[in-house]
Amino acid sequence: MSLTQPVLNAVAFAVNSAHINQIPISTTDRGAASFQMGFPYETMVDKLAGGVPPNGEDFNGIFNYLSKHQVWLNAGGTYKFNGPLADALGGYQKGAILASNDGLRLYVCTVDGNTTDLNSDMTGWKLIGTSELQTLLDTLQTNIDQERGWRETADADLLQRIGWESDARITNDNALQANIDQERGWRETADADLLQRIGWESDARITADNNERDARIYSDNLLNDKIDLKLDKAGGTITGSLTVNSQITTPSLSLSTFSTSNPGFTTLPNGFIMQFGFVSYSDMTPMDSGNAFERYAHVNFPTNFPNACLSTQATICIGPTQLVSYDTWAQVKEISRFGMDVLNQSNAGALTPPQGIYWQAIGY
Where are the beta strands (DSSP E) in the chain? Predict the structure, then answer.
């Protein structure tokens, strides 16, 4: 069945009565009504059994309080934000509609439990109505019409400029194509000339290389003859200066015994051996001292010293962003012909640990 609007009322119940009570939230008065308890139980008990009749002024107060809200709504009233009520309710719920303090704007609540005052902070509220809405719409339409006129004028001007630019680009493209064709002709002529010169240069270089080869062969033969005069195949002694214009192969000297890996080494003609390498910080073991910044690692030499290790060196390698202070060092110990230990303490204030230790050893 369809709903029919009830009769609207402009007068609150008992509005002119001299017998009306203000109903409290709670009360301890016997037989008195309150919002929390309504009419107490004693008003529902027979007087002969000790009951107390309900107070008619309480009825007037209750109906007056409730009917004031009915009159307010009949008059089209909209409630405004009330902080104590919001706190008591646990905040306004989503969908609640309130008016601004001046009554000229309407807001809808977009979240549950909203205690934000919409008059000072729009968090959790959206504007849905305003007394200036029509003025804003009229101003917006005027601006739209004005903007449309400006855009139509600007579009016409843009189309004209595009036409001019198109004609200019066609002219420039034609001129560029003519220049490209002319440049192509010049480059083809230049390339043909360059190819001819390359052929001449190639022939000249071949001739020069052949001459150089013949000269080197003659020089090497001459050198071998001179060396043969100084030494025979079984050896000998050179007296005076020896000038070598090419190369001497002497497998008896350890000039080519070396390794560039990590670790690596090289041998010297006088019998000395230089060994070197790098130990990464991540491959080092914490020491037993309890200091978290002290580490060590044992290094095995890539080749054993036949007689003894004479000198060693260790250098700490740090990153570009690290701090360096007096408590950052690298040391060596337990040195033998076969290897040694490298030790490291890094600065406790460093941003990151060191990268590792470079080491060297010299012996024979």
Answer: 97-99, 105-109, 125-130, 258-259, 264-267, 273-280, 285-286, 294-300, 309-317, 329-333, 339-345, 356-363
Are 294 and 287 in contact by the 8 Å Cβ rule? The answer is yes
- Backbone φ and ψ for 265, nearest 5 degrees, come out as -160, 165
In the sheet that 105-109 helps form, which strands lie side by side, from edge to edge? Answer: 97-99, 105-109, 125-130
How far is residue 113's CA from residue 111's CA, in Å, rounded to a whole number? 7
> Can you give the pLDDT of all 364 residues of the chain as single tens digits?
788 888 888 899 999 999 999 999 999 999 999 999 999 999 999 999 999 999 999 999 999 999 999 999 999 999 999 999 999 999 999 999 999 999 999 999 999 999 999 999 999 999 998 766 767 778 889 999 999 999 999 999 999 999 999 999 999 999 999 999 999 999 999 999 999 999 999 999 999 999 999 998 988 888 777 666 665 556 666 666 767 666 665 554 555 578 889 999 999 888 899 999 999 988 999 887 766 678 999 999 999 999 999 999 999 988 776 666 656 889 999 999 999 999 988 765 555 678 899 999 999 9
Among 316, 312, 326, which residue's Cα sits nearest to residue 295? 316
* Per-residue tokens: 262: 């990590």
Q: Measured between alpha carbons, how far is 171 from 165 in angstroms, rounded to an integer?
A: 10
Phi, psi of 221 (to 5 degrees): -65, -40
- In this prediction the pTM is 0.37
43 and 53 Cβ atoms separated by less than 8 Å: yes
73 Cβ contact partners less than 8 Å away, ≥ 6 residues apart: none
